[in-house]
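Handout, page 2. Input:
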Amino acid sequence: QPGEPAYCEAPWCYVDMTKCPVSTTDCLAAGLRLNSKAHPACRERAYSSTSLVTTMELYYSYETCGFLNSYDLSRVFPGVAGENLVVSTFGLKPWHQIIVNETTGFKNYTGPLIEFFREALTRYMTPAPTILWNDDWATAESMEVYPSSSYTACVHDVAVGNYDLCVADIWILPERRLLTSFTPPTRTDQFYLVVKSDGSAGLSLTNMLRKPLDPFTGESWGLIMGVVAFAGIITGLTDPQSEDDYPYPRNAYFLRSLKSMYIAVSSFLNGVPINQIETVPAKVAAIGYNWFILITLASYTANLASILVAAAGDTGIKSLEEAFDQQKTVCIYWTSRPTFETAYPSNKALFVDADGSSWARFMHSGVCDVAVMYKGRIEAAHAGNIQSEDCAALDAGDLTAEEAMCTSDKNGLPRDDCQLKQVGDLVMAIPSGFPVRSELVQGISWAMSKADNAGNWTSWDAAFASDQAKVNITCNANAEESVGLPVEAFSGTAIQAGFAFGLALIAAAIERLTGRRLESWFETEESESEGAAQDEELLVAEVDGPGDGSPMDMKKAPSAATKTVPKEMKELQQAIAELQQINEPLTEKLDQLLGNKSGADGGRNGQMPGNMTGEGDDSNDSDRWQSLFDKKETVGGKLLHS
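Output:
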């Protein structure tokens, strides 16, 4: 009815206390087990004494009628509200911290986990309990039982009644749940697979030079070089008349062979022929060579790309299953071994016990090939914190140089924790909570759930964000986020090309200092004399014309002398310029007299045409043309000498 107390809204009933309590004797006599619903004596339901009737003792129960007493919170408070709670913790920044006042010695217990726990109990428990903090953490007796983990030892202390709770960032593991109850999780650690790349090895000179050659085996490179060399021979044999490609005397075999090899190699590297193909045999050979270049370069490009991209993740392992398939040893947090062995029973032999500090040096020393580690410790490694811890342990004498791997790995290369790269998807997630005595778990869990739903945990986590173990990550070690090819992948090619550039610069400097082309050093006296004869013939043809009476054309082709006598180049250019000045008016006059046969014959013999001797022209004009012919002979001789 309106106005009645809220606890009247749910059905309840009076109960006969002579029948409600559990009776083991009556339950067994009925042939049943305790908690069976088939007999009242086998199962007890919650009941309370009424305060409405004072003349007699009556009991009522919501549960007997099939409903829940959600109005009386005192049932979740026993042992908590208004009681003293002995709570153990220790200092671990940022989650739980102990700040000691140096003057008074007062200890302030703080941190997001401690503040959240304190607020949950004081705000939602009435009356609030008194928290008696203990910073001894696990007792010596429990450490003897669990010497390898103080966390599990503290859980054991709660189970045997030494503490009511342990407030710390403790993973909720099946073997720990077996000891005692846990509060609802406060946070979760996410575990990922970690592989080691060959980052430092990739920076060595040998590896940089080798990497561009990785796409093919040594035998394949041998075959390719053989084909390229054969293509050079074929090029020289099938197209020997090309003056553009072979500007050397016919018997300069060494120079022609070098040029053939250069054409073959350069065509291969360019992916297209660089020579001027003129003959049919050369064109047929070029088709076959171009096909070889096409297939080879396409294969090289594809293989090199796959190799270098794989090198960004380096091992190629992207999941724990792939690591097992390759029989890789796996570093795991030792406390999670039972969980891993349950999930992967056939791979127990591959697991290596490690902790948050040792896993990194184990990977550098080769104790394990890969690791499964949670995000916080991966980031600590990338910030250099774990390496600093190992070096500090070495300085303190807690680790040997071989164990610490402080400065170098097993191969003697500088240690670089940026090589430890997170790959693949989430492997597992382990929640963290507080171990609590079983009789207190309902009340404390209820208060923490209320506080969490109200956003208290989020608020305290944000309040201590500046104190959290934020790391200055100095490397991008997430292989999935970094798929670009690193600069060292191309360093070898750059060094090799730079070596060729250096040789070219040295050769150019030698030519400039000596005034001679390098190929002229390899010419024999015989080839020089034959080359000089060829040059003389070409010069005569250029200066005197083809000998058929046609006007000479000084723009037909560059003189061969410009290719074989670079030392006389300046004198040669001067003579050519003078001849060009003479040739223009002379050619103009000859064009006017082409119809005169005797004049043409005289022109062919180097004499003045008939009309040039005064027939139709005055004597001054005749003298002018005679002077031009004389100058032509003089300069022509100088040009031929050059």
